[in-house]
Design brief:
mainly alpha; 2 strands; two-stranded antiparallel sheet; 152 residues
Length: 152
Amino acid sequence: MHDRTAYWARLEKLPERALIKISDVMPELNCVSGRAMIEALIAGERNPRTLAGLARASLRKKTPELIEALTGQFEDHHGELARMLLDQIDALTAQIDQLTARITTLLEEIPAAWGIDADGTTGPHAGCQPGAAVLPAVARLDEIAGCGTYAA
């Protein structure tokens, strides 16, 4: 996850080198709108109005700011680098998903990691409802400051 975050940071700096200041309008590229705009830039789209039209949800309200931010000097070599970074991000995401699925499967096989429902029922999916007597191990570890679900 650390490596994937580093690749996203590199990808966010790439448009800035091409005088595209999208980070001034969007807090991060790691969203549906950001991904769509980067994919369009990679595909050769350079029209700022068209790129801004790819914004979703609340970002649509910032269309004028996006048009200004997307006006720059993005060239084909920037697109090649962006494609490489996105491919690395996607590969890391696939590995994270694979490991997460494996860890989840292994945890479900450990009775001590299970929770207990309010009615005393135990099992791999017990303890997740409100009023549970005991939370699953991952949820208990998540309550420790600085230890999120992925770390747990």
